[in-house]
Specification:
722 residues, alpha/beta, Alkaline Phosphatase, subunit A, Serine Threonine Protein Phosphatase 5, Tetratricopeptide repeat, eight-stranded mixed β-sheet, 28 helices
């Protein structure tokens, strides 16, 4: 390696064959197309219908969605099956209600292989299939990869900051990545397709909390960051549509856009979702744009429909037989003119079911089951409610006491509906690994031990605490999380204290309180809570590691190492072992540091931060071939981990491979625009390669974001441009 100049490595501190498909009726005419339509299914997470431009929001710009609505079918009254990501997406992909597919909450269930997904059906009909998802609840470990030739669920784009540290504000939310990275994961796959039809599912998680849209949407929607997230996701959908147009595939692609659920935004005193079952979280957008429909034939359908109808509608449009076991029904008759009279005035008034079992499964409260029947909506639970949606769309006037006969009729109809749509085998919660248990507990999605085996009874239950009476607890929890997200721990303590006063036995409330205490500098009190939680096995690795790192930085090295040795010995947490390795490295014990890294990778071979540090170890110990192999593997397994790109760039620079090094420094900057060391490294490489104009341009980019930084000053001196 060339040692004339060095860019220091950064260590962590503290197709199937084509089959001929006879396409279905589009506008009632029988036309077989020589080339089967492609299918693009796009799900926006946590997206209310009324926040999209074509649904009446004049304060947002959603040109991609509005364009699809202007050329397709927009359903004004589509409803989801659950205000929870995993159950809802299971229905979108199978056409079954949760009673049929068995997924009832995030993290606690796996979509069984006994279910047949849309990807499997289309794959059997000659379609190439791919998916890229944006968040933890729908990753492959929960069964969502069924039927996909390519299923990309790399979520490291939002997992840690560019120094390799898990961003503290992220530890209380689901691991996710932005919509741009979701697109990036599948565009090469699209580019390599020949003429076979494809099915592509894109899951954009951005509108889910925390609301943190990237520039310029954070400024354009500074007064409403939720709208900013939706507008950003819309822009990325537009980018994907442009890609399809570039490939010549857009004109023969059937596009379906929907959401898994909405967001409370304070309605019914629910700030987020997954607690109640009102239309603020169940009413979702649904837009279907068949190829060639055009503006003149675009329609708005007012009839109530459901996300359970998506699979059969797609199959019907493609001319594929709809499996008998599917619960939903094709919606094509609503716009094809097959009914007597205008479609929207037809007698299309089926019953629709929804549920929210999360209050029971997650918090030990009561559960909610819902039946839509015509204009009426019945919510069953510890405190049943009845609404007339035609007169009261905001569900403000409960009619259960003034119209008890209708409430009883719908209660009985709901009980029958559940029985008729229940799977033969009862759904049960899965047994969870200890690390996942702690993760779900810290996120607020688990109150029990995670041992699994809890059976779901497909009957109407009215026991337990009414979720309506405890929604304030969840609002306080959400407020505390967001204040910690905004680095306001002292303000968060106001809410966490109320939570532990309400339920001092709740591990998730106590851990959130400990996080606020730690952020406020009350480390000893926080540590006392964490040690108690650790004794019962209910503390999240993130909080424990944060406090261990604090102790290490305060000079209490032996205590910090002892804490992590004990914890990693019990859990074999890859992240804890990685942190432990850095402690050993900083205290002059490279042998134990290497051992900890290797243990971390045995526990999780795809844990890119440890893989990068292992590559750095081999590079520094004269084994460049082994180092490069580890770098390459880290980049493959952590494609959005900026520190992997930076360190590989440093490795290439030391080997005088300047052009390659510059490319990886640019990639690090693309992934983390605030990565100042990557900016400085790029300037150094360009200067060394004699690309003075490029070096000056890179210096200008650095000065634009950090003009007074040490990196900008050093780079200015290097170029003689002080």
């Amino acid at each position: 390696m060339n040692n004339a100049a060095r860019i220091p490595f950064q260590r962590f501190r503290g197709v199937r064959a084509i089959s001929l498909i006879a396409l279905a009726l589009l506008l009632g005419s029988c036309e077989t197309r020589p080339q089967p339509w492609n299918v693009l299914l796009v799900t926006f997470d946590t997206t209310r219908a009324d926040r999209i431009g074509s649904y009446g929001n004049d304060r947002i710009q959603t040109p991609a969605l509005d364009g699809l609505a202007n050329e397709g079918i927009r359903f004004a009254n589509a409803v989801s099956v659950a205000p929870i990501t995993a159950p809802s997406h299971s229905t979108i992909l199978t056409g079954l209600y949760p009673t049929g597919h068995g997924v009832r909450d995030n993290g606690l269930f796996v979509l069984s292989e006994q279910n047949r997904t849309l990807a499997e059906i289309l794959g059997d009909h000659g379609y190439a299939t791919a998916a890229a998802v944006g968040a933890f609840p729908v990753i492959s470990r929960f069964g969502f990869d069924q039927g996909f030739d390519l299923f990309d669920d790399h979520l490291t784009g939002m997992y840690e900051d560019y120094l390799g540290e898990r961003a503290p504000k992220k530890e209380m939310f689901f691991d996710e990545r932005r919509a741009a990275q979701v697109n990036e994961a599948v565009i090469p796959w699209l580019d390599n397709l020949d003429e076979e039809p494809f099915f592509l599912w894109l899951h954009y998680f951005d509108p889910h909390q925390p609301f943190e849209p990237p520039p310029p949407y954070d400024q354009l929607y500074a007064d409403d960051l939720y709208d900013g997230e939706i507008a950003y996701a819309d822009s990325r959908l537009g980018h994907m549509l442009d890609q399809l147009k570039r490939l010549g595939k857009l004109d023969r692609t059937l596009i379906v856009m929907t959401a898994d659920h909405g967001e409370g935004l304070g309605e019914h005193n629910e700030v987020t979702h997954a607690v109640l079952a009102y239309d603020s979280t169940l009413h979702v957008p649904l837009i279907i744009r068949p190829p060639g429909l055009g503006q003149e034939q675009a329609r708005v359908i007012d009839a109530r429909v459901g996300t359970v109808d998506i699979v059969p509608t797609i199959l019907d449009l493609l001319g594929i037989e709809i499996p008998a076991e599917i619960h939903g029904q094709s919606l094509t008759s609503l716009w094809s003119g097959d009914t007597d009279g205008p479609a929207e005035e037809s007698v299309y008034t089926p019953q629709y079911y929804a549920e929210n079992l999360s209050p029971r499964l997650t918090h030990g409260w009561g559960e909610l089951r819902v039946l839509y029947d015509g204009d009426h909506k019945y919510i069953h639970g510890p405190r049943p409610e009845l609404y007339d949606l035609s007169a009261d769309p905001d569900e403000l006037s409960d009619l259960s006491s003034t119209d008890p006969g209708e409430a009883q009729r719908l209660r009985e109809a709901l009980a029958v509906f559940i029985q008729e749509h229940a799977a033969e085998q009862a759904a049960t919660t899965q047994a969870l690994e200890p690390e996942l248990v702690r993760r779900l507990q810290s996120l607020g999605y688990l109150h029990g031990s995670g041992e699994g085996g809890e059976e779901i009874r497909e009957v109407l239950l009215d026991d337990g605490v009414a979720p309506q009476d405890r929604v304030t607890d969840l609002n306080r929890m959400s407020a505390a999380k967001h204040l910690l997200f905004k680095e306001r721990p002292i303000d968060a303590l106001h809410y966490t204290r109320k939570l532990v006063e309400t339920d001092g036995n709740s591990p998730m409330y106590r851990e959130l309180h400990a996080s606020a205490l730690a952020g406020a500098g009350q480390l000893d009190e926080s540590w006392e809570i964490v040690r108690e939680l650790q004794a019962t096995g209910t503390v999240s690795p993130e909080l424990l590691m944060k406090l261990a790192a604090e102790r290490f930085q305060r000079g209490d090295h032996s205590a910090a190492i002892e804490i992590l040795e004990d914890f990693s010995g019990k859990t074999e947490s890859a992240r804890a072992l990685w942190l432990l390795s850095s402690f050993y490295q900083q205290t002059g014990n490279p042998e134990r540091a290497l051992e900890s890294l290797q243990r971390a990778l045995r526990r999780n071979p795809e844990f890119a931060p440890a893989r990068v540090d292992l590559a750095v170890h081999w590079a520094r110990n004269g084994r460049p071939d082994q180092a490069e192999a580890e770098f390459r593997r880290a980049l493959a397994e952590g494609p959005y981990y900026a520190k992997a790109s930076f360190n590989y760039g440093a490795f290439l620079f030391e080997d005088a491979r300047l052009e390659e090094a510059a490319a990886y420094f640019r990639r690090a900057i693309e992934l983390a625009p605030g990565y100042l060391k990557a900016h400085a490294a790029l300037i150094t490489v360009e200067q060394r390669a004699g690309n003075r104009d490029a070096a000056r341009a890179a210096l200008g980019a650095l000065r634009a974001i950090a003009p007074a930084s040490a990196e900008a000053r050093a780079a200015s001196d290097l170029l003689g441009d002080s």
